[in-house]
Design brief:
disordered N terminus; Tetracycline Repressor, domain 2; 64% helix; mainly alpha; elongated; 230 residues
Amino acid sequence: MSQNLPPAKLIVTPEPSQKIGRLESAKAEIQNAAVKFLWENPFRDMTVGKLMKNTSLGRSAFYYHFSDTNELMATILRSLEAQIMEGASPWLTDDGDPVALLHASLAAEVKACFTGGPILKAVRDAAGTDARLEAAWNGMMDSFDDAVSERIAADQALGLVEEFEPRLVATALNHADATLYIRSFGQKPRRQPGQVLDAVFRVWISTIYGKQWVEHRSSTLYRKQGDNSG
C-alpha cells in the first residue's frame, strides 16, 4: 500500500442489532467524524463544536452519547482494540504452523493500526493528563500482554518455544509495537505498512520461534493443541 492512499477508512459501525436505530447511527457518525478530524489535526485541537460541524447532527447529540472528547476517544480506542484482537485470533487460537499464523495475525494488526494510527497517538499523548484515557490505554495494553503471554506459555508447553519468562517478553514486544505504530502511522506522511510489517515480523519471530524462520514467513513447526473431547 502507498503512503498516498486516502486517509483512514471510517472504522466505526453501529452496534449490531436486529434493527439499527437512529441513536446507534448517530453515535457511529460522531466517532467517524473524530477519526477523520484526527487525520488532519492534533487531538488537542478537537472541540465538540469543531467535531460536530463535520456531522449532520447538533451538539446535543454529542452530549447524549459522550460527556466530553476524552470519553469519545476512549470509546473509539475500544473499537480499535477489538479489531486488533480479532485480527490476532489465528495465532492466538488456531492449530497449524505458528510462524505462518503469527505472520497473518501481525499483518492484520498492522492493517488496523495503519487505519487507526491517529487514534493510538491521540490516546497515548493524552493519557498522562486524563485518568480515563490512561485507564483505557493501560487496559488495552494489559489485554494484549495477557493474550500474548498466554500464547507463548502454551507454545512453550507444546515444545515449540524455548523457556523464558513469557509475560516480560510479551510486554516488551507489545510496547515496542505500539511505539512503532504511532511513529509510523500516527500522522502524515505514513510509512508504507509493508515495511512496518516486515520489521515487526522479524522481531517477533526471532524472539519467539527463532531467526531461522524469518525469511520464509513459515516454518516446519506444527501446533496441535490438546483434544478435550474425550
